[in-house]
Design brief:
CATH class of the largest domain: Alpha Beta
CATH architecture of the largest domain: Alpha-Beta Barrel
Radius of gyration: 31 Å
Helix content: 40-55%
Number of domains: 4
Mean pLDDT: 86
Oligomer: single chain
Largest sheet: 8 strands, mixed
Low-confidence stretches: 1-5, 239-246, 321-325
Number of helices: 26
Strand content: 15-25%
Length: 753
């Protein structure tokens, strides 16, 4: 049976008129289903809305028993309507009652109808409900009719998402506004309560229905041409899209931009009466719905590429680029697919209460910066940017890795109480600030801070830390728009020394490369950047870069002690060459009459496993060692710490890891070379307890970790835990983790962890 004269374009015009009528939401919805039924010549048209308690409820119908409205309710996995909601795919049947998923509802009177066509009501890939048409005959709905109904469904979805229908069913809300609880990975401790700010705000399509279809087709074609050309240029130039995406990603995006099926679906959506923007939005929502339900991780990952392409096309159509300004409202929670440390630092930190990411693991640099700033952060939240809208209430639990979007009053109250309890605990930690970190059996443990920004140094006084065990100089380079000059670097280092006073500071030379790309340096394509041209390797290959930094450090430290640490050293020879560059710079400054540091000590970050087999030699050559546990564990276990599929496959408290740490502590002590742990494990009380048991006496960590670790130290008997670890390592299997045994030890001995 053909569609009514005028087709979907006429229907959309009439829907627009119905949406503008000054009537109640129920009257408007009743009018809409009548219009749809007349347009597709269907005897039934019904709208089911998915409520926040995961129930599909009949909200309006033309053709079925009207008394069933708000009475007929079914689970989201029940019946044909539930099947459509689950799969997010259209379903067309010539005989609905013969389908195994058919669920008979006597109150509706639908037993007389055989032909069935249902389409999901989608927004950003999320199912909000189902739109159904039915006929008494055993008919087959055409592709054009399915397309028309999907186009109509998009308009209905916006009505549902606006919250206009909530008043029709008191006590529940539409699924678009339902509370969402999701667990990811904890990145930075703390609890943040606030409202969503999207790092890359979604383009809001305000005009859905086309005034002039031919003009919209022309606009779409022009925009597609512009986006294709821009991506082709990026590929040819070898630039990155956004923050560090590789050429491979660019090639994938270009492939999608030339995909005929994607383009055809958008053109068909425009032909059905949507604006070019609405067509892009509708097709991408369909893509999201399908790909979010895929079990193949590769296919789910490609969703990001399609999102990027759709956003580029929308920005081209609307005529603006960029993410807007970085001014935040009070109590802002940033939600992003991914974000680099420089982007985070662009925001006003006084208003920022938390960060939620779809990507990013606990050892990523965004996580390290979030911890340094004391901002609760959670990563690996699937589909985070589509779970919420700007302004939604949200809670970030950086301790458990959970987020609560649009939480109910009970959840808000519970987290409010947790915040009060944490504040009380912080008061208890602050009371320990001036107490020396000495174990029960009299072993002094040095607790220092990891830092990278001047703002970090204010935490020295707050925490009572013994100094800065790691100052990451690359953050200054990452937030700058151009390479900092020698004078600018010297100014920063002078400010660091002024802020720390007489406390010791260990400054790490520039650690760039890998995933830390400077925005003003050409991106270098490498198969495995973590094992590539980075850190000291760049410094030795481009000695002018290293010499400028060393000269700035030496001049800034005039008359005071200076500790310089070189990252990513793999051989004793690399350290020897770096040391020679320092000596040349000192000689240069002497010749020109510049005062030198009162003492200059040079150290090595132990993070490349090859140093474990040169540990005696490097401990004799260096003035001090500092264990970079993040990279050391990554390389030791051949596990990419950013790869969620494998990052959890090893434990830093397993026997192989503990043997590596013990080897470093023992050989450094034998050589009289001080050894510190500055990786993330030093800031975790249980792991810090194990490191003390292995012989480490200096730990460096984020500011928030000082209090909990000091409380652990004050309750610990160092000789007892050392003996316990020795016994357990001898007993345990080679790959076994001592985490359960160490936790039991702490509990039995009253050590707070």
């Amino acid at each position: 049976m053909p569609a009514a004269p005028g087709g979907p374009r006429l229907l959309l015009r009439r829907l627009r008129e119905a949406m503008a009528e000054p009537v109640s939401p129920q009257a408007r919805l009743d009018r809409i289903v009548t219009l749809i039924a007349a347009n597709v010549i269907a005897e039934v048209c019904s709208v089911y809305v998915l409520s926040n308690d995961n129930i599909l409820e009949l909200f309006a119908t033309e053709g079925l028993n009207r008394e069933a409205v708000h009475l007929t309710r079914m689970r989201a996995d029940e019946g044909l309507v539930g099947l459509i909601a689950q799969t997010a795919e259209p379903l067309s049947l010539s005989d609905a009652q013969s389908h195994p998923s058919f669920s008979y509802r006597p109150e509706t009177g639908e037993e007389a109808y055989h032909a069935f066509l249902g389409v999901p009501l989608l927004r950003a890939g999320n199912t909000l409900g189902v739109l159904v048409v039915q006929n008494k005959t055993y008919r087959v709905y055409s592709e054009e009719e399915i397309e028309a109904l999907q186009t109509t469904a998009m308009v209905l979805s916006e009505m549902i998402a606006s919250g206009e229908l909530q008043a029709l069913a008191p006590g529940t809300g539409p699924a678009a506004r339902r509370p969402v609880s999701q667990r990811g990975v904890a990145l930075a401790d703390g609890i943040g309560l606030g409202h969503v700010v999207l790092h890359e705000p979604r383009i809001v399509v305000k005009q859905l229905i086309a005034e002039n279809v031919d003009r919209e087709v022309e606009r779409l074609e022009l925009a597609i041409g512009e986006v294709r050309s821009a991506i082709d240029d990026l590929v040819e130039r070898g630039d990155s899209i956004g923050t560090g995406e590789s050429r491979e990603v660019l090639e994938t995006v270009r492939m999608f931009a030339h995909d005929k099926g994607w383009l055809r679906r958008m053109r068909e959506a425009v032909q059905s009466g949507l604006t070019a923007e609405a067509a892009v939005e509708r097709v991408q929502s369909d893509n999201r719905a399908r790909m979010m339900r895929q079990s193949d991780p590769y296919l789910r990952d490609r969703l990001h590429d399609l999102d990027d392409l759709a956003n580029r096309l929308l920005r081209t159509l609307i005529g603006h680029e960029g993410n807007g300004d970085r001014v935040l409202p009070e109590n802002a929670i940033l939600v992003a697919r991914s974000m680099g440390p420089a982007a985070l630092l662009d925001y006003d930190r006084t208003a920022l209460r938390g960060v939620v990411l779809e990507e990013g693991g606990p050892t990523s640099h965004i996580a390290i910066v979030a911890r340094a700033l004391g901002i609760p952060a959670v990563g690996e939240i699937a589909n985070a940017t589509a779970l919420c809208d700007a302004g939604d209430a949200i809670i970030v639990d950086g301790a458990t890795g959970e987020i609560q979007v649009r939480p109910g009053p009970e959840i808000e109250a519970a987290y409010g109480e947790m915040v009060r309890v944490r504040a009380k605990r912080q008061e208890q930690y602050r009371a320990l600030r001036d107490r020396p970190a000495v174990t029960q059996d009299g072993v002094a443990i040095g607790l220092q801070l990891n830092a990278g920004l001047l703002i970090d140094l204010t935490h020295l006084a707050e925490t009572g830390a013994d100094g800065i065990g790691l100052f990451r100089t690359e953050l200054q380079f990452m937030v700058a728009q151009r390479m900092p000059s020698a004078a600018e670097q010297q100014t920063l280092y002078e400010a660091v020394f002024a802020a720390t006073g007489d406390l010791p500071v260990t400054i790490r030379t520039l650690d760039i490369g890998g995933d830390k790309i400077l925005p003003y340096m050409p991106a270098l394509e490498e198969e495995n950047p973590a094992l590539g041209w980075r850190a000291i390797r760049i410094g030795l290959d481009r000695p002018a870069l290293l010499r400028v930094q060393l000269r700035a450090l030496l001049r800034a430290a005039a008359g005071r002690p200076l500790k310089i640490m070189f990252p990513m050293v793999a051989t004793v020879d690399e350290f020897t060459r770096a040391k020679a560059i320092v000596e040349r710079e000192k000689a240069h400054l002497r010749r020109h009459g510049h005062p030198l540091p009162s003492d200059c000590r040079l150290g090595v970050m132990v993070e490349v496993p090859s140093l474990l087999f040169q540990i005696d030699e490097i401990a004799r050559a260096a003035d001090f060692l500092s264990v970079g546990s993040n990279d050391l564990m990554q390389f030791l276990f051949a596990v990419d710490r950013e790869n969620r599929r494998v990052a959890g496959r090893f434990d830093t408290l397993s026997v192989p890891a503990l043997r590596a740490f013990r080897l470093i502590a023992e050989r450094a002590a034998a050589a009289g070379c001080p050894a510190t742990v500055c990786g993330e494990i030093g800031g975790k009380p249980l792991e810090a307890m194990a490191l003390i048991g292995l012989g480490f006496r200096h730990l460096s960590m984020s500011p928030a970790a000082i209090g909990p670790v000091k409380a652990m130290v004050l309750g610990l008997d160092a000789s007892a835990v050392a003996a316990f670890i020795e016994t357990e390592m001898a007993r345990a299997g080679d790959g076994e983790s001592l985490r359960p045994a160490l936790s039991a030890f702490a509990k039995a001995h009253g050590v707070p962890i």
